[in-house]
Predict the structure.
Amino acid sequence: MKDTNIVTTTLEDLGLIVTYSTLSLGAAYFAQLPGNYTLRPRLSSISSLNFAEMESFHNFFTGKEKGNTWR
């Protein structure tokens, strides 16, 4: 709980609104496993703008770490 409070305080100092959510922790964990798609906690669709804001596109595909043209 101490570490959670440190993270929460730091994020609030940056101007973010932080809330504790323990309602769907189990569902979020088990929804990662194959065949448990119905357990996902986010039932609404994600727009392409929201996806672009959450996704990091600066990594390499598996097996392509070396020999890229931009390196």
Residues 2-13 form the longest helix (12 residues). Residues 10 and 63 are 37 Å apart (CA to CA). The chain is about 35% helix and 0% strand. The helical segments are 2-13, 25-30, 48-54.
